[in-house]
Amino acid sequence: MRVITSKDFDYFLKRWNVTLESPPLETNTSLVAKVNRHNQSYILKLSLEEGDEQTGAVLRYYDGRGAVRLIQEEGRATLLERALPGTPLSYLLRRGEDDKATFIFCEIIHKLHEKQTVIGYYPSVEDLQESFESYLLSGDLQISETLVREAQSLYQELVNSQKKVILLHGDLHHENVLYDEKRGWLAIDPKGYMGEPTYEIGAMLRNPLGYSHLYQHPEFLDRRVDIICETLGFDRERVVGWAFAQAVLAGIWSIEAGNSPNWFVEIAIAIKKILRR
After folding, report:
1. Cis amide linkage into residue 23, ω under 30° from 0
2. Other Cβ atoms closer than 10 A to 86
3. Which of 25, 64, 96, 183 is 20 to 30 A distant from 105 in Cα terms?
4. What is the CATH number of domain 8-82?
5. Could you tell me where in the chain the CATH 3.30.200.20 domains are found?
6. Where are the beta strands (DSSP E) in the chain?
């Protein structure tokens, strides 16, 4: 499989008649750069591994509803609307305005989830559960077997009892919601999974990373869940159940990436405390 490198930027700069505003930055899955065309700023994104993300397809489907717009797409490259000034939603949380940030999440989720008539193939949240068994067979001991098996069992139970399945953003958290002075708060970087709406909450409950209130004070998480369920009409037990199982899953993926799972384990334990209050 060919891996895209920074050299490929030259092709797309010429192809789409854009110029670099700053050097490309490499994330775990992409090369990303701010670019400009006719005094209009955009984001040029190249996925490093084929199949990592379906940013273009998902954003084309959303068509600007609660998300940045897809401008152009070719293969694993996308030219995207850039949110300006691009302040992340985590800014509100760090100012002590977590309730406000949570209500904004609800608005974004409502926009992303409404008017859904999905055409084409997207991976399913069901596919992701394979990582539980792979971890249990790996012999790794960084996450307790008891916690992994509990999360695996609950995840499978939730997958099997899904009723309404839609196209989810799949990675909706505070750093993936940015402020645009013209269009308001917008989601970026969707993964694109088919699953039930309550699955969408898991990523925001375990974010932003490093914010110790999330695991030191479970009532902080409880407050978020109350706002979400009251605003969106979601089933509380399913929201928290998905969030717990996903946190353990995120820990497993962290290990696979060569990183520590400790943050996600702490969050999973905190979420478990509010699972059945």
Report:
1. no
2. 16
3. 25
4. 3.30.200.20
5. 8-82
6. 19-20, 25-26, 30-37, 40-47, 70-74, 77-81, 85-88, 166-168, 177-180, 184-187, 193-195
Please state whether 144 falls in left (phi above 0), alpha (psi between -120 and 50) or beta.
beta
Do the Cβ atoms of 217 and 231 come closer than 8 Å?
no
42-to-15, 20, 38, 50, 69 alpha-carbon distances in Å: 14, 10, 11, 22, 10
Q: Per the structure block, which two tokens stand in for 114?
A: 């409404």
Structure token pair of residue 210: 């490093």
In the numeric block, the tokens 């969707």 are attached to 190
pTM for the predicted model, two decimal places: 0.93
Instruction: Quick: pLDDT tens for 181-240.
Output: 999 999 999 999 999 999 999 999 999 988 888 888 889 999 999 999 999 999 999 999
> Per CATH, is 88-273 categorized as 3.90.1200.10?
yes
pLDDT tens track for 95-132: 999 999 999 999 999 999 987 777 678 899 999 999 99
pLDDT given at position 51: 55
Amino acid at 223: R
Q: What is the C-alpha separation between 166 and 116, in angstroms, rounded?
A: 7
* Per-residue DSSP letter, 67: B
CA distance 277 to 228: 16
